[in-house]
Design goal:
Length: 692
């Protein structure tokens, strides 16, 4: 290490220590000076986003860890980060020396709640910002702490303690304007979506529903934003009030609507709403109100007896508590304080007394009314996951455009290496993003490009950085995971390529990953089957070698929305029981990673479709996958001796499909057309030519 690197490292460690000192000081002063012994800092923002905007990256700021999953815990003498297997290597390299990495799911690593219960003294107070924890997570944490004699303290009035430490250096809230998502790609108007939602609300007995997830709001309103990098969403909430037909019920719901005005309200910074968006929303009967007005409207509904649909897995504990207090007769807050997300002091709904000497609320004049919200999964999540015909057409078009860009990049990389040049991982990112930007309708990348050369490929969510990235030369195994946001759809693709001659071991590992990919792609299953039931198909070929990978096999993907969405997944998380249904878009991405050596991943996006079968046992429909991704897989990384005839046929069939669908778009690009022809030839022809 050079002297300059040593100095930089020392300065970074000192800055990290100063942040912890400041946070611990805030912890001692929290809750009116009573303090907390521990403070939890999750990844999520007030909308429970996987990818929060810069102003809400509290965990990243305090810990230095930039991954998209993890929770930090700070006590008077410890700082710990829990994260999953996707991020073990990344977290180990990013965490300052004052921090300890807790590898979730590995032997000897306790769950976060169990660690708190075992390591804090009797009666210890654990502080949280209730805006960035869901109702479910608070209930779980509260139960485990109470069992161990500890107390959970939602610090609503204190604001976010990390935001206090961040101070004036904290980025401002994003100002990006909204845009209308065209009906041609949305496939259904806002009024139609709201009508279907109200029918679901009626059947569940809900008089109003609060949508908190940013992609749910974007999907419901057919709008897109740019408040979060890589995700076309805006900081917003939406409150939908059900319209009733019967007079008595109508009157009750009108009373329950409080001051929210219309039957659907979008809460967003008014500066983001231009004339076109305003007219688009007004046409659908959607009223626009300030972002900070949400809490008072929700509280007014609850106070008036409205039955709110609040998904406990998506709604923050702060919102839930405000509604509960209003329903019980406590004074409702006048507004959702705008300064609250900036970490400043606020007036607003107090959370329930923590049983540790907190001042009790004044006794109500009458017995409190029971707060009985509808606590079911948000119906918007399920509706958004099942793409309609227009959304699927947009996704197919986006993948055709994306395939042109990725193939152009692959050809460019071969040319660079063929000319004896080297390319850095950062230049790889810039090049593939540049080729995407040349495609019509390109908006931005759908996530930060993962370009891992050699051992960096083993860091599952690696992000190359200038000055520290590796180079790609004539003998490099490169894992490239990238994607694009287009006006019509969202893409996510991983290809692993070798720029020279791969080793036999690399080919063996790649081929086993390929076999898992093929097995999942070829699967047929009865309707009602969750993704967890298919996960082993992608792992079996690896398991036979004693190999595996520490991430899920597939995630849902939005249509011109977030690259990660639920409720479906394909993984070993058996508690995710959502069945795979026609119209759902998922990834198929098995992998293998050798720490300090290389990584392999093969990823396509697929859509669930109905399949014809000779029989239909018990009258069930059977389902399968249709491929969306159309980029060749590198033949020289395949070991044909390990592939069965049916697997070879799959590769050849996939490459033939790519040629048939992509070649018509390349008639004016003869160089790329020739590259595509060479790389979609039958496997025997490709490998035979290389082996001569």
């Amino acid at each position: 290490m050079t002297d300059s690197n040593t100095s930089a490292g020392a300065a970074s460690a000192a800055a990290a220590a100063a942040k912890l000192d400041a946070l611990r000081a805030a912890m001692r002063e929290a809750d009116g000076g009573r303090g907390v012994a521990a403070y939890l800092v999750p990844t999520e923002d007030p909308h429970m986003s996987e990818y929060p905007p810069a102003c809400h990256k509290y965990r990243e700021y305090i810990s230095g860890f930039t991954g998209t999953a993890g929770t930090a815990v700070v006590t008077a003498d410890a700082a710990l980060l829990w994260t999953d297997g996707r991020y073990f290597l990344q977290a180990a390299s990013e965490l300052p020396p004052q921090w300890s990495l807790m590898k979730s799911g590995t032997p000897g690593c306790p769950d976060l709640e169990d660690w708190l219960a075992a390591n804090l003294p009797e009666g210890a107070r654990v502080g949280i910002d209730p805006w960035v924890h869901t109702v479910n997570s608070v209930r779980t944490l509260q139960r485990k702490l109470q069992e161990a004699g500890k107390v959970l303290v939602p610090l609503l009035d204190d604001g976010n303690l990390v935001a206090r430490v961040w101070g004036s250096e904290r980025p401002p809230a994003p100002p990006a304007p909204l845009r209308v998502h065209p009906l041609a790609w949305a496939g259904e108007g806002v009024a139609g979506k709201l009508g279907k939602l109200r029918e679901q609300m009626r059947s569940s007995g809900a008089s109003a529903l609060l949508a908190c997830s940013l992609d749910e709001v974007a999907w419901l309103t057919n709008t897109r934003g740019a408040d979060v990098e890589h995700n076309p969403v805006a900081l917003s909430y939406m409150l939908v009030v059900r319209q009733a037909a019967a007079g008595g019920e109508q009157q009750q719901e009108q009373q329950g609507a409080g001051e929210c005005g219309g039957s659907a309200v979008l809460y967003v910074d008014g500066g983001k709403v231009g004339q076109q968006v305003a007219e688009h929303l007004a046409e659908a009967g959607v009223q626009v109100k300030p972002y900070e007005a949400m809490l008072s409207d929700v509280a007014a509904l609850a106070a008036a007896g409205g039955r709110l649909w609040l998904d406990p897995a998506r709604v923050s504990y702060a919102v839930y508590q405000a509604a509960a207090k209003a329903a019980s007769g406590d004074a409702a807050p006048s507004e959702t304080p705008r300064k609250r997300p900036r970490g400043e002091q606020q007036e607003g709904p107090a959370t329930a007394a923590d049983g540790d000497g907190a001042a009790a609320p004044p006794a109500p004049a009458a017995a409190p009314k029971p707060f009985k919200p509808v606590e079911l999964p948000s119906p918007v999540t399920a509706a958004k996951a099942i793409k309609n015909a227009a959304e699927l057409a947009g996704m197919r078009e986006a993948h055709l455009r994306d395939a042109v860009a990725v193939c152009r990049f692959m050809m460019w990389l071969e040319e660079q290496i063929g000319q004896g040049k080297t390319v850095t991982e950062v230049e790889v990112d810039a090049a593939i993003t540049g080729f995407r930007s040349q495609q019509p309708g390109f908006v931005e990348t759908s996530f930060g490009t993962i370009a891992g050369a050699g051992p960096n490929g083993a860091i599952i969510h690696y992000r190359p950085q200038p000055g520290s990235c590796r180079t790609v030369d004539g003998c490099t195994l490169l894992l490239l995971d990238s994607g694009g946001q287009y006006d019509c759809g969202t893409t996510d693709i991983t290809r692993t390529v070798h720029t020279g001659r791969p080793s036999d071991h690399q080919r063996r590992c790649f081929t086993r990953v390929l076999q898992g990919h093929i097995a999942l792609d070829s699967a047929i299953w009865p309707e009602g089957t969750p993704g967890a039931a298919l996960d082993t198909l992608a792992r079996t070929a690896l398991w036979r070698e004693g190999l595996n990978y520490r991430h899920g096999t597939g995630h849902g993907v939005g249509a011109a929305l977030c690259v990660h969405e639920g409720p479906q997944s394909i993984s070993s998380r058996y508690h995710v029981t959502t069945p795979l249904a026609p119209g759902m878009v998922c990834s198929n991405e098995p992998g293998y990673y050798e720490d300090g050596a290389f990584g392999v991943r093969i990823e396509n996006l697929v859509v669930v479709v109905e399949r014809e079968t000779p029989f239909r046992y018990a009258g069930q429909q059977y389902l399968g996958f249709e491929r969306l991704t159309l980029v060749p897989m590198q033949a020289k990384l395949m070991d044909p001796a390990l592939l069965s005839p049916s697997e070879v046929a799959w590769v050849d069939g996939y490459h033939r499909e790519i040629w048939n669908k992509l070649a018509p778009r390349l008639q004016d690009q003869p160089d790329l057309l020739e590259w595509l022809r060479r790389n979609t030839r039958p496997l025997e022809e490709q490998l035979g030519g290389e082996q001569q």
